[in-house]
Design a protein that fits this description.
2 domains, globular, about 240 residues, alpha+beta, 6 helices, two-stranded antiparallel ribbon, 8-stranded antiparallel sheet, Cyclophilin, about 20% strand
Length: about 240
């Protein structure tokens, strides 16, 4: 399934991944409904990404803060190891972990990655961080499975039992996460094509640019004002393409 994003700077064709059917089907529905037509790329950060999909951006006056609009629902996360934030990746925006621990996606807001090319030392650090994030996520899932046991020991003030269980779960979580944080494919792409590796494992990537990466480059270079909103509005329309 492909979607053409039409802008005054040119067209961007994105291919939606079948591996993320919830996001794919939702995006297709919104495109068919004309939801995105007249919305803006309301948040643009050079060497990082371009973001759109806020319905409040339609006809928004200059200076209006944007980025919180959307439908009255969020989407279940579909974060997959093989889908990552390479240059041209299409991903779902979301609220932060502190209010959204399940990392549910915005019902409509999305971003397209531009990013940077990284050297070996930088990628080693990203890989280490990503592995630690995976271990922490595995630990949290294990802890949730033992919630009743943990609560009981807390009520009993059984500090020894809590520490023993924590050590056991930490060892199990570490054993679950094998290899490095970044795969060989990620290392190759981030060191040659570029992207935003620090977002991997945090947001749902559900497609990629097949045509019009030069348009993404132009948009991410545009001048911006307060709130990272482009000084000159960049409006979009979307259509499904065969």
């Amino acid at each position: 399934m492909k979607v053409k994003i039409q802008t005054m700077l040119g067209d961007i064709v994105v291919r939606l991944y079948d591996e993320t059917p919830i996001h794919r089907d939702n995006f297709v529905k919104l495109v068919k409904d004309g939801y995105y037509d007249g919305t803006l790329f309301h948040r643009v950060i050079k060497d990082f990404m371009i973001q759109g999909g806020d319905p409040d951006s339609k006809g928004a006056p200059a200076g209006k803060m944007l980025g919180v609009g959307g439908p009255d629902y969020t989407l279940e996360a579909e974060i997959k190891d093989g889908l990552f934030h390479k240059r041209g990746a299409l991903a779902a925006a979301r609220q932060g972990d502190e209010v959204n621990p399940e990392r549910r996606s915005s019902g409509s807001q999305f971003y397209i990655v531009w990013g940077q090319v990284y050297n070996e030392g930088q990628l080693r650090q990203f890989s280490k961080q990503l592995k630690m994030q995976k271990i922490q996520s595995a630990f949290n899932q294990l802890a949730a499975q033992h919630r009743d046991e943990i609560m009981q020991m807390r009520r009993e003030r059984n500090r020894v039992g809590l520490q023993e269980l924590q050590d056991k779960l930490a060892a199990e979580a570490e054993a679950q996460v094998t290899g490095n944080g970044l795969t060989d494919e990620q290392l190759k792409i981030y060191s040659t094509i570029g992207g935003t590796p620090h977002l991997d494992g945090q947001y749902t990537v559900f497609g990629e640019v097949e045509e019009g990466l030069d348009v993404v480059e132009m948009i991410q270079q545009t001048a911006t004002a307060r709130g990272d909103r482009p000084v000159d509005d960049i409006e979009m329309r979307m259509i499904l393409v065969d």
